């Protein structure tokens, strides 16, 4: 290992290992489904971006932000956070029922987006067979007080373990609903716009990803969306099978895909920085 900057988390963190797992893509889609159930938060997206026309660009920018804050230098992570905060300060949304105009950087909205994302990453990874002890799972939640700080939250008020995260979700549930914007996101995730020649691939591959991400939502989310929740045991089997298949793709192949955050981190820190699940619990 060199003396190079390990970034906000570093190779010894749970985040470093977990975010290299290919199931994070399914977890990210689950997070979108969950985030859409907060009417005030989802309006900040639908009213400020044409996500249907730049769907893949938006998804890749989100993935790049996570990759930069996880594997980039401290300076790169701080600059990425400052850019997000700057954009959010300029954006507002309007409640169609009351006419209220509010900033998308309200702490309550930032908190919802953060918790939905971290919960989804942890939930899908664990349920698909990524081995984490209870202490490691709590450590992961605590580590992401750093990412919460980057987007403008006070890290001291952000959940620091799974119990605090569960308490937060219980508290916020009365604010959740599947309004028109959530339905729009739901429809988009099932049928994202794509080139006509790629429609068959979307139907075969993407819809399976979207269905599995949706199936892994908590029971109250299924109730809000108005569709019956699938049997938990069936979903767990499907997640484990997906994890088994995706993890068989060699890391050297997966990590060659842009923007290559992990390869750049290994070049900066040395080969010992290679993320791998077996490094947890040592």
Question: What would a concise description of this structure say?
Answer:
It contains 15 helices and 2 strands. With 282 residues, it is mainly α.
Walkthrough of the structure:
- By secondary structure, the chain is an all-alpha fold.
- The protein has 15 helices and 2 strands.
- It has helices at 14-18, 24-35, 39-46, 55-71, 74-89, 107-127, 134-143, 145-150, 162-172, 180-190, 199-215, 219-225, 232-247, 251-254, 261-269, and strands at 92-94, 101-103.
- Strands 1-2 form a two-stranded antiparallel sheet.
- α2 runs antiparallel to α6, α2 crosses α11 (199-215) and α4 (55-71) packs parallel to α15 (261-269).
- The longest helix is centred in the middle third of the chain and has 21 residues, at 107-127.
- The chain is globular, with a radius of gyration of 18 Å.
Descriptive terms for the model:
282 residues, 2 strands, two-stranded antiparallel sheet, globular, 60% helix, 15 helices, 2% strand, mainly alpha
* Main pleated sheet: 2 strands, antiparallel
Distance between the termini: 17 Å
Which outline best applies?
A: globular
Task: Give the strand order, joined by hyphens, for the main sheet.
Answer: 1-2
Topology:
Blueprint (H helix, E strand, L loop, with lengths): L13 H5 L5 H12 L3 H8 L8 H17 L2 H16 L2 E3 L6 E3 L3 H21 L6 H10 L1 H6 L11 H11 L7 H11 L8 H17 L3 H7 L6 H16 L3 H4 L6 H9 L13
Antiparallel strand pairs: 1-2
Helix pairs in contact: 2-6, 2-11, 4-5, 4-15
């Amino acid at each position: 290992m060199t003396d190079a900057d390990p970034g906000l988390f570093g190779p010894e963190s749970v985040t470093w290992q977990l975010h290299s797992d290919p199931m994070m893509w399914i977890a990210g889609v689950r997070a979108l489904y969950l985030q859409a159930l907060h009417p005030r938060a989802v309006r900040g997206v639908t009213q400020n971006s044409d996500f249907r026309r730049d769907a893949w660009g938006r998804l890749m920018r989100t993935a790049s932000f996570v990759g930069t804050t996880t594997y980039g230098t401290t300076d790169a992570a701080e600059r990425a956070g400052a850019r997000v905060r700057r954009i959010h300060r300029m954006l507002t949304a309007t409640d169609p029922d009351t006419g209220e105009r509010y900033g998308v950087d309200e702490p309550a909205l930032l908190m919802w987006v953060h918790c939905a994302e971290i919960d989804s990453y942890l939930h899908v990874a664990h349920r698909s067979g990524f081995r984490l002890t209870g202490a490691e799972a709590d450590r992961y939640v605590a580590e992401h007080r750093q990412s919460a700080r980057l987007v403008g939250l006070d890290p001291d008020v952000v959940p620091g373990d799974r119990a605090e995260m569960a308490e937060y979700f219980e508290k916020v549930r009365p604010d959740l609903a599947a309004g028109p914007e959530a339905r729009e996101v739901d429809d988009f995730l099932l049928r994202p716009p794509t080139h006509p020649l790629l429609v068959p691939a979307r139907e075969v591959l993407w819809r399976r990803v979207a269905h599995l991400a949706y199936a892994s939502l908590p029971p109250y989310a299924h109730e809000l969306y108005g569709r019956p929740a699938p049997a938990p045991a069936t979903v767990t089997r499907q997640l484990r099978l997906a994890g088994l298949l995706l993890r068989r793709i060699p890391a050297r192949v997966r990590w060659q895909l842009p923007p290559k955050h992990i390869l750049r981190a290994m070049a900066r820190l040395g080969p010992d920085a290679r993320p791998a699940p077996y490094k947890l619990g040592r």
